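Continuing from the previous page of notes. For each protein in this section, the sequence appears first, followed by its structure tokens. Read the first protein now.
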Amino acid sequence: MTKWLLRCTRCGRTWVLEVSFDLTKLSNGRLYHYCPYCKQNTFHEVMKRVEEDEEVRTAELMEEKG
């Protein structure tokens, strides 16, 4: 499984999504998915692939941005 940092285009919050495919292959760089913060389906920008050691720091940054 690969982890990706996504940013909701509606609320701007970032979060990590774990999927089994390469999101860089999306033609427009966006994914329509459920946002756990907006509580609805919205477009998300694919920010970057998250390595295992980055995941903890990414979660910390997400909390700081609140």
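Done with the first. The second protein uses the same format. Note its length before scrolling.
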Amino acid sequence: MADLLAPCPGDAHLRVPDGRAQEIRMATAALRIAGPLTLALAVPAGLVRGPLGAATALFAVTLVVGGFALTGYAHGRAAARGPVALQAVALGGMILRLWVYGMLLVVLGPVSWLDAPTLGAAIPIAVVVLLAAEVRFVTTQPDLWFVEVPAAGTPRPATASTSDRKDRA
């Protein structure tokens, strides 16, 4: 199976000069996952709960993917400020998103045009899948964490040895 989070050959143009590359790449990753995730949730929900269950699963995936895309936007803005801001936004954003998803389950549970059991199952599953994808995405993007990785075959810059550092002190 193809890696849904791996950069596509056409992703080279996503290195946007104004610092928005991360948010665009994260939103693109969310959209790549949305299709298979929707099928994985909507088909069983449709078989078990009918058309309303399938529509509710689609709605739940849309909510969670939208949150994932907004996270990409927030990460891109925080990365422009520095690594501390990025880490604060990553942790604070996840806590906020979990709270929002919980409130959505409470508020949307009694809505008549949604199937509450499907909503209660689809949102947590979608959150876990997309959270795992988000963790994988941010840990495999060294430039997001301000780490400069030399190209393959490029010699590493020389560093001072421990004895050189002691002599300078």
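What the second structure shows: The CA atoms of residues 52 and 132 lie 28 Å apart. The chain is about 70% helix and 0% strand. We return to this in next week's lecture.
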